[in-house]
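Hi all, long-time lurker, first post. I run a small reading group and we've been trying to get comfortable going from sequence to structure in the token notation. Rather than ask abstract questions, I figured I'd post a concrete chain and ask someone more experienced to write out its structure so we can walk through it together at our next meeting. Sequence below, copied exactly:
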Amino acid sequence: MIKNAENIIVGISIGDLNGIGSEVVLKTFEDSRMLELCTPVIFANVKILSFIKKNFTSSVMLHGIDKLDQILPGKINVFNLWREGIDVNLGANDDKVGEYAIKSFVAATKALKEGIVDVLVTAPINKYNIQSETFKFPGHTDYLDQELEGNALMMMVQDNLRVGLLTDHIPLSEVASHLTEELIERKIQTIKQSLIQDFSINKPKIAVLGVNPHCGDGGVIGKEDDAILKPTLKKIFDKGTLVFGPFPADGFFGSGQYEKYDAIVATYHDQGLIPFKTLAFGKGVNYTAGLNKVRTSPDHGTAYDIAGKDVADYNSFKEAVYLAIDIFRSRNQYEEISKKPLKIKEKQL
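-- Answer (accepted) --
Happy to help. Here is the structure in token form:
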């Protein structure tokens, strides 16, 4: 059954309490109309958030709950995940605060897996202060890839601009060694399936950027484009996927060529995220495609330099909530449509 938008429960991990996460989360729900679209559940502590709220202009009313079966629609629910006090020093890097960021994220992920929340939106974390003996992941995506079904793929989204990555959080020196035929085929298939089921695009067109300047100039500036990318993309295209490239990356966005495609696939992190954030910063969303559950996040970090100054732009977080809701609904509709042919066939038999 397809859930109505107003019934969608949005789990929110609070991120680094010393950053702007709490501010952008609470400012997102200043608009009461947001509570008509979804029911937020913040994994943190209501007293801590009430304390942080005093640092910026906010009239939101927080509803503290001690059990997840106490979630109330129309309220900004704060699940009291811990009871002890925390020293909050806005703008400071603190390993102890990092522990609570991960405690929130892990609990929210568990609730997502168990179907208590329908989607997950994560506030920014500091990748350095979250590391511990029990959490050794570069960030959210890697942990979700372990905990959920499917193969995670980082996709940046802003309206019709969608940028996926073949490789993400690895050193630039290791990119070429990671580009295998198997990896490219798997990532392209993940992006194609996401465009179909998450964005309702029946026959998506996908562009892939070359790994070397000018796609290697025939091997003069690197052989990976000719040796790996081109033959693999041709093989994928011949199987029926509308994938094109590789294209030289330097002029692809500036020329507006990206507008012809439903998704652009960059071969490494900065190749895709620099042009994306130039075009969409402040409204972009980081979406983890390829998994059996929906997770989104804003396109920015903890921003310690402006934490507590009441100047943080919350639009990216709000867009992350919107996108999570849209994808959840698209997936439900796709599932319903996919089931109908089977039912018709059964009746004919």
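A couple of things your group might point at:
The first helix runs from residue 21 to 28.
The two ends are 25 Å apart (CA to CA).
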